[in-house]
Structures are given as C-alpha cells and as structure tokens.
Amino acid sequence: MKAQTIIFAFFILMVSGMYFGMYLPFSNFFVGMPVRVVLSLLGIALIVLAARARFTKISKAFFILTGSSALGIGLSIDLHNLVFALLIKLFGEGIWSGMGDEPVFFILATIVCPLALLVGAIGSMVFIAKKKVIIKE
Length: 137
What we know:
Largest sheet: none
Shape: elongated
Low-confidence stretches: none
Structural class: mainly alpha
Number of helices: 4
Number of strands: 0
Order of helices and strands: HHHH
Strand content: under 5%
Distance between the termini: 22 Å
C-alpha cells in the first residue's frame, strides 16, 4: 500500500510539473527529470516485488499494472522527446510542417499510462482493503 501511495504522489508531482512548468524557469530540469527517474525506478521496484511475492493472481496483476504504467510514463516521455529530436536531426525542422508532434509516445505518456496507473492503484487498494492479497497456505 505504501508503494502505491509513493508512486501516486510522484505521479501527481509530475503532472503538476507538466502544467505549471511553463511558469517556473528550469522546473523541468530540477523537478521534472528527477521525478520521472524516481517514478520509473519505483515502477521497476514494484514490478519486481510483485512478481516475487506470494499474492493472488488478480492482486499481482494490479500491482504489476501499477508498476508498469509508472515505468511507462517516464519511458514514454523520454522516448517521445528522443524520437522527436532524432526525426528533426535526420530530416530537418520542416518534417512536421503542419502534422504536429510525434503522437505515439505522447499518447502513451499522457493518456494510456496515467489511466492504467489509476486502474492499477485503485484495484490494488481495493484488494488490500478487502485483505484478499496474500495467498493463504
């Protein structure tokens, strides 16, 4: 339960940094990057711990969903920026002329992974509250 709370707190901090970052200079460098790194590391830790624990299958799935979506948010943001910079470097700045931005990792980072994080966190909290997480021997 504590791991999901910490992941959710870093998720809120990262989302608030995305929206209020334009008003604070250098906030992405001093807040955004460390929060993404910590969120990704916490996601990896939750995936490993949930995979090794003796949980019921459904609760293990919710824990792994929470960890993988936390990891996915940080990776998708970085991959979005990397692909965008790589395409500009390869094809020049005029490649996007009216098309917008690189959409795949952007949609993963802003829509899919946050929704999966909420579903995984709420689902695992429900199973923790019902005390149906650990396999009885």
